[in-house]
Specification:
mainly alpha; Fumarase C, Chain B, domain 1; Fumarase C, Chain A, domain 2; Ribonucleotide Reductase Protein R1, domain 1; 3 domains; two-stranded antiparallel sheet; two-stranded parallel ribbon; 18 helices
């Protein structure tokens, strides 16, 4: 996945050029901190800042020999710096560089995901306004329940995205932890000031205490947040897939000119985008599980987490960036069929107004038990015979003893179910377009 999208902004966060750039800045800042402490000459720190460079190909060449990425990196930087390179990586261990740089990468990735969520929220906000009063059937257990509006449905999607933005913002802050405490985290060979100095310059929070690594529950929480966001997008994508079924067809993901749906059946218009999203969300959730497995390590550290993280953190952020962008495009160009929504509303011949009749009877003094029984009897007859529910209600003698024909007719008004649309949408600052 990284290679395919490496030209995209998210992909670059995880490219060697970006990673080594962060490593270099951490090493240089550490030297400057040592210089402030008087441990190394100020002139040496200045020379390191001026001359320190790296070459990705040369690092790979050295790593092939030494089989250690950080040592290969410092060797290459030393080739540019010269004599002053003896001060580079002073008192530090590899994880000081790796974990602090990883925090920076995760923060950059979080910023991109937050932007993605903002773009999706903007599209959903517009859709909620446009379709504020477009009636459609609400379904519980997959069965027709009562009328809703498409605008309210989009508002529920928007609310989920807003919650995800809050989660991602919190995960960004909670994962912005740096660590430069040396081997096993005791600061034996590195002054705590170095950690504070470097983290402050990078906008990170120094770990209150660390072993040789930042605790991996930090990364597990971040990955879990990505998984929750992916689950949100999958949930919305599955709703589109369900409503695109031929027998429902209330909405449909865009189908481009020249697009083919099937190698065998020319008529096919499949929700492939939403299906792709659902599949990729499973990968992100699986990666979160691997992140949870990384929490348990031996003593002050082992390396079992490292190989896993080199896959799951880049891939999860890249995949989530991709599915958010793809889903935003789908929603933006979503095809909506209001006429099919109306036809589906009427498919049960008025059964969806059963609660209105029930409540009207109760309001007239009928006990809830008796009201429920008489309404359900008529509803079951309508189910069995495919009869018109309103006609059955109008002919029922018990109901007639409580409700006039006009009062019965009033129970079958779609507008009743839209009376609080503005109340709901105003909570999001949305003015519905009638």
């Amino acid at each position: 996945m990284i290679d395919r999208y490496k030209r995209q902004r998210m992909g670059f966060v995880w490219e060697p050029e970006s990673r080594f750039g962060k490593w270099l800045e951490i090493e240089v800042l550490a030297c400057e901190a040592w210089a402030e402490l008087g441990v190394i000459p100020v002139e040496a720190a200045a020379a390191i800042r001026q001359k320190a460079k790296y070459n990705v190909d040369r690092i790979a060449e050295v790593e092939a020999q030494v089989r250690h990425d950080v040592l290969a990196f410092t060797t290459n930087v030393g080739e540019y710096v010269g004599d002053e390179s003896r001060f580079i990586h002073l008192g530090l261990t590899s994880s000081d560089i790796l974990d602090t740089a990883l925090a920076l990468q995760m923060r950059e990735a979080a910023d991109i995901i937050i932007e993605d969520l903002d773009k999706l929220a903007a599209v959903l906000r517009e859709k909620a306004a446009v379709y504020a009063y477009t009636p459609m059937i609400g379904r519980t257990h997959g069965v027709h329940a009562e009328p809703v509006t498409l605008g309210i449905k989009f508002a529920t999607w928007l609310y989920a995205v807003e919650r995800d933005r809050e989660r991602m913002t919190a995960a960004r802050e909670r994962s912005s932890i740096g660590k430069l405490s040396g081997a096993v985290g005791t600061y034996a060979n590195v002054d705590p000031f170095v950690e504070v100095y470097v983290c402050r310059k990078l906008g990170l929070v120094p770990a209150k205490v660390s072993t040789q690594i930042v605790p991996r529950d930090v990364h597990a929480e971040y990955l879990s947040t990505l998984a929750v966001i992916a689950a949100t997008v999958e949930n919305l994508a599955v709703e589109i897939r369900s409503l695109q079924r031929t027998e429902i067809l209330e909405m449909e993901e865009p189908f481009a000119a020249g697009q083919k749906g099937s190698s065998a059946m020319p008529h096919k218009r499949n929700p492939v985008g939403c299906e792709n999203i659902a599949g990729l969300a499973r990968v992100i959730r699986s990666n979160a599980l691997a992140g949870l497995e990384n929490v348990t390590l031996w003593h002050e550290r082992d390396i079992s987490h490292s190989s896993v993280e080199r896959i799951i953190i880049p891939d999860s952020t890249i995949l989530l960036d991709y599915i958010l962008a793809r889903f935003t495009g789908i929603v933006e160009k979503l095809i909506v069929y209001p006429e099919n929504m109306l036809a589906n509303l009427e498919k049960t011949r008025g059964l969806i107004f059963s609660q209105r009749v029930l409540l009207a009877l109760i309001a007239k003094g009928c006990s809830r038990e008796d009201a429920y029984a008489v309404v359900q009897n008529n509803a079951m007859q309508a189910w069995r015979e495919g009869a018109d529910f309103q006609a059955l209600v109008e002919k029922d003698a018990v109901i007639a003893g409580y409700l006039s024909p006009a009062e019965v007719a009033e129970c079958f008004d779609y507008g009743y179910h839209m009376k609080h649309v503005d109340t709901i949408l105003n909570r999001f600052g949305i003015a519905g377009k009638k």
